[in-house]
Every structure is written in structure tokens, then in C-alpha cells.
Specification:
It contains eleven helices and 13 strands. It is of the alpha+beta class.
């Protein structure tokens, strides 16, 4: 719809978006819509216009018309497309976490959410290790085992960071507080004078007075005839179901630059730029991988992947060769920049990132193709945009122009 407005009124598509964005000073913004569970859809935070400006700068958008004109003089058809998205993430009701210090000094972290390659282990290990004063490699992460953590909801809708993140943070904090309280009793020191570093509780100013977290865990699980210190449970662990109080809204703007061969209908994605805001990034490298991987999915949606059925509803697309997944050779240069607008809906300020690369991709690429083929009056209302479909649209536009 934004492309239609832009085309019919001859307004730059970036400007149409800028005129219609919810402004940052309107946050939190009540949309009047409802989320899947019936809760009101409220944009909690973000600066959509600033995010658009970042991706326009990243993509050299302001100089594109010169590049397009130079290419056209050579008989090449370049196009550029813009797309923006918002995503409700972090849906409830919860995704709890248990953090437990073992006698070995290792820290067991258990949650119900399953991972399919999103980097949950790395992310959650960083949160627990940072809060508990241990090394990430000392974290033993287990997930998706109902025998070890029975209350899991699921890894859907970019909800893990915004729910497991806060619960892991809270559980680790509770274990830290319990460890400091016990260490103060064992070391005969004030809790205010204690700190934890590399799994060791030390008295500030008296480095020889120390005890490891593993030794503290053993204090709570003594041998027969011994006693658990008064006022403590017999394990150095905590379970939390802290999460997001609503649905943090992630957002992004993408710019795709393509070259189209009108004779064959071939589309090459030359360059792809992403500006994304998923709140506070726990591990920027993991987030980058999520976004780039999502863009690859989106390019596949836009240009390659399609299920085909016959008149009786039987699938003709029977393998990945026929379904046509994109290869590395089809992938363009992908540039990514980030904004970090903390969400007020959870303790870490995080928003989901799992789908942010995919959502705007098809619209950006379709818009870029239309822009490249303006003189053929091509309007695309279906994807994937395969060569046969595109050449039919070009032929149609050429015939209409001749008439």
C-alpha cells in the first residue's frame, strides 16, 4: 500500500513512510488493535524515523538515482525498494529458568524453551555468568527437557530473549544473594564487604578470606550427621518466572537494491541494508547472525521458494530442488546497523530478534523490482517473483504502452 501511494502520488517511498510513522514522543502508543491473546497492542518504545534515516544512510539511498541513471545509460535496469516493519515479540505467559550451583563449582541452568540454532545457550550463559560472577564456560545449559524443567511454553514469536532472559537474570541474582548471605556467615564478614569473581567469594580488602561457590554449595548439602546452616534451603539454587509484562515491539527498516534483466526476468539482489532495533543486545554477534539469516530467508521468500499444486491439490513441489532454496551464490552484500531502544516491559530492556530480518524482505525486494521496471509499468501483487512471472508482466506492460 505504501508503494501504491508513493507511485500514484509521485512521493518518495521513504517520505511516505516518514509522514505516517508513529513518533517516538507518542510512545507508548495504543494502536487499538489486539494481540493474539486478546491483550491490547501497544508500541512500547522505538524511534521509527531515526531507524529509517540510519538505513537510508547505510544504503547510500540519496545517491541511488545517479547510480540508476548511469546504469540505464549502459542498458542496465537498477531498482531500489524500502520496507519497514514492526514485530510483537516476547509473548507470555512465561518461560522460567532454574539456576543451581553444583558442588563442582559449575552452574546448571535449565529452561523449557527449545533452541533450533538461535544461540540460546550463549545468550543465557552470558546473562547468568555476568550476574553470578562466574565464567560463561562454567555454565551447564539444558533446555527442552520436561523431566528437568516441566513448565515450558515454546520457542515461537521471538519470545525467548524477552522471557528466558529476565527469568535467567532474576534466578541468577537470587542465587548470588543467597551465596553472599551464606558466605558472610561462613567467613564471618559483612555481606556489603563481599564480592564474587570467577566463582570465588572474597572479602574486599582481605583477599585471603575467600570461599568458592562450589564450597558454598557443599555447605548446603553436607554429609550424614552434619547440619544445613540455619535459615537456608539445602540447595544453592533459585527458579524464576520473571518475563516481559507485555509484548515488546521490535522494529526495522530495510533497503534492497536490485538489477533486473527485462529480457530474461532474472533478478539479482546487488545490495541489502538493514537497520534494526531489538532493544538491548545481549550478544551483538548472535543478533547479527539472526538478522542476516532472516534476510536470507526473506530473499528466498521473495524470489525462489514456492509450493506448486495441481488441479486436484496434489503437490508438484516434491523436493528442495523443485522448491528452490537460495544458495550462497544468490546472496548479496548485507549491511546491518542497530539501534538499542530499551523496552520498559522487562528487566533487561530486550526485544525479540528472531524474525526481524525476514519480515520486511519480500516487500523491499518487490518494491525494488517495480522501481527498476517503471518504464514497463510493472506492478507486482504476488511472490515469489520468478522469471516467467516477471517477463509476463513486462510483456503486458509493453503491450499496454503500445496500445
Amino acid at each position: 500500500m505504501i508503494q501504491v501511494v508513493s507511485r500514484e502520488l509521485d512521493i518518495d517511498p521513504a517520505d511516505v513512510r516518514r509522514r505516517n510513522y508513529v513518533r517516538s514522543d507518542q510512545m507508548p502508543y495504543e494502536t487499538g488493535a489486539k494481540l493474539r491473546g486478546g491483550a491490547p497492542c501497544i508500541y512500547d518504545s522505538g524511534d521509527y524515523e531515526a531507524l529509517l534515516d540510519k538505513v537510508l544512510e547505510l544504503s547510500d539511498y540519496s545517491s541511488f538515482k545517479e547510480r540508476q541513471a548511469a546504469a540505464r545509460a549502459e542498458g542496465r535496469y537498477l531498482g531500489i525498494g524500502v520496507s519497514s516493519c514492526i514485530e510483537d515479540t516476547g509473548m507470555g505467559p512465561y518461560e522460567g529458568t532454574t539456576v543451581r550451583v553444583e558442588a563442582s563449582g559449575k552452574v546448571a541452568v535449565r529452561t523449557g524453551a527449545a533452541s533450533q540454532g538461535q544461540g540460546h545457550h550463549t545468550m543465557i550463559a552470558m546473562i547468568v555468568a555476568g550476574n553470578l560472577g562466574v565464567k560463561p564456560e562454567d555454565i551447564m545449559f539444558e533446555s527442552a527437557d520436561t523431566a528437568k524443567f516441566s513448565h515450558g511454553v515454546g520457542t515461537i514469536g521471538s519470545r525467548v530473549a524477552a522471557n528466558v532472559g529476565p527469568s535467567a537474570h532474576d534466578a541468577a541474582f537470587q542465587v548470588r544473594e543467597k551465596a553472599l548471605k551464606l558466605a558472610a556467615e561462613v567467613l564471618e564478614a559483612s555481606e556489603a564487604d563481599l564480592d564474587i569473581e570467577d566463582g570465588v567469594v572474597r572479602v574486599n580488602g582481605a583477599p585471603d578470606l575467600s570461599i568458592t561457590l562450589g564450597e558454598l554449595a557443599m555447605q548446603l548439602t553436607p554429609m550424614s550427621a552434619m547440619r544445613v546452616p540455619s535459615g537456608f534451603d539445602p540447595v544453592l539454587e533459585a527458579t524464576s518466572f520473571d518475563g516481559s509484562s507485555g509484548a515488546p515491539i521490535a522494529c526495522g527498516s530495510n533497503v534492497a537494491e536490485v538489477e533486473v534483466d527485462p529480457g530474461t526476468g532474472e533478478v539479482k539482489v546487488l545490495r541489502y541494508s538493514v537497520a534494526h532495533d531489538c532493544g538491548v543486545m545481549i550478544n551483538p554477534m548472535v543478533v547479527h547472525g539472526q538478522i542476516v539469516g532472516g534476510v536470507v530467508h526473506g530473499i528466498g521468500n521473495a524470489l525462489f521458494e514456492r509450493m506448486i499444486y495441481d488441479d486436484q491439490g496434489q503437490p508438484l513441489t516434491m523436493n528442495y530442488g523443485e522448491y528452490l532454496l537460495p544458495l550462497a551464490s544468490e546472496m548479496p552484500r548485507i549491511d546491518v546497523t542497530h539501534m538499542e531502544t530499551p523496552s520498559p516491559l522487562n528487566s533487561l530492556g530486550v526485544k525479540g530478534a528472531g524474525e526481524g530480518g525476514t519480515i520486511p524482505a519480500a516487500a523491499a525486494i518487490v518494491a525494488a523490482i517495480e522501481n527498476a521496471l517503471t518504464e514497463f509499468s510493472v506492478e507486482i501483487d504476488y511472490y515469489p517473483v520468478d522469471p516467467q512471472y516477471l517477463t509476463e508482466l513486462i510483456d503486458k506492460g509493453t503491450a499496454q504502452a503500445a496500445e
